Amino acid sequence: MTDVLERLSRADPWYYTPERVKEIEPLLEKVRRLKREKRAVLLAHNYQRAEIFEVADETGDSLGLAMKAADVKDAEVIVFCGVHFMAETAKIVNPSKMVLLPDPSAGCSLADSATAPDVQERIEELRKTEPDLAVVTYVNTTAEVKALSDVCCTSGNAVSVVRSLPNKTILFIPDRNLARHVANNVPDKNIIAWDGSCYVHEQITPEAVQQMREGIPGLKVLAHPECRDDVLALADAIVSTSGMIDYARRSDAQEFLAVTECGLSDLLSIEVPDKQFYRVCKICPYMKTITLENVIESLEKLQFEITVPEEIAHRADRALRRMFEVTGRDTTPLPPNVPNE
User: Fold this and answer.
1) CA–CA separation, 316 vs 212, rounded Å?
2) Is pLDDT at 330 greater than 50 in this prediction?
3) What is the pLDDT of residues 164-187, one digit of tens each?
4) Does position 45 have pLDDT exceeding 90, yes or no?
5) Which domains does the chain have, with CATH numbers?
6) 208 Cβ contact partners less than 8 Å away, ≥ 6 residues apart
7) Residue from 214, 277, 217, 210 nearest 241 by CA
8) pTM
9) Do 90 and 78 contact (CB within 8 A), yes or no?
């Protein structure tokens, strides 16, 4: 059994059969060769297909990948295996690099829920009655919306970002579930939530989570804060995707349920092979538009370059940099209830 087959079969032994992996391996080698030729690095979000992880220089959540993108120095090209707003963020924090998105249709329904004109109108309306208003924007937004913000955040640092602000009234854009999670953890702030949500996380029901918990004694439930309140209420920990990986590695528990997009369960099975991961997950079709084939074509043709107008990029960068200042350059710390092994 090859190393690739051994890793990928941990993610999904029914799909990553010896025959399928034999077809994949030449594509993996072609991506590696093209990365060398084009002086490219490949950043992959934790929700990507398992075979993409095999050729990624870095995997991570939105915060981790934004930091990695900002730190790219030697390479000339960043290939972003994720969705459009993530590639935009990479371009904003490292404007001298060429940033490629292998499939331009890789969008985000959550980002689409908040347009810059609507956000601008809402800010102007609120500031008439709320002069203390601060605008906190989740990174799952367009560059234009980030440019209207005081500070950005990710699912992993939203609480600490909001807590750090002197303002008492916060317009939180665009995810209402994450906004409620922040409000529950920062009760001294007045959180005004934009009415957006991730339809992938909205589909996950508490009944499905409870059924798994009842059927597997000792199961640890790790839920993404984009999930519904009734799902979060069943979680042992509410953490970002990278937080889930850290939790599983450090916990003395052996069985986990990752309540988020299915790609994270694949990555957990690969990265933490000595533990068991169960699924109550949904697939994001936008994330899954990225394939080895379109990564190869993107590198060969240097196609689907991401650009951001300079004025918008400058203002969005300011909001992102403020997030970095608040949270530091390290990934979000684990919740206090995570035991050391």
Assistant:
1) 41
2) no
3) 999 999 999 999 999 999 999 999
4) yes
5) 3-106+287-301 (3.40.50.10800), 110-197 (3.40.50.10800), 204-279 (3.40.50.10800)
6) 280
7) 277
8) 0.90
9) yes
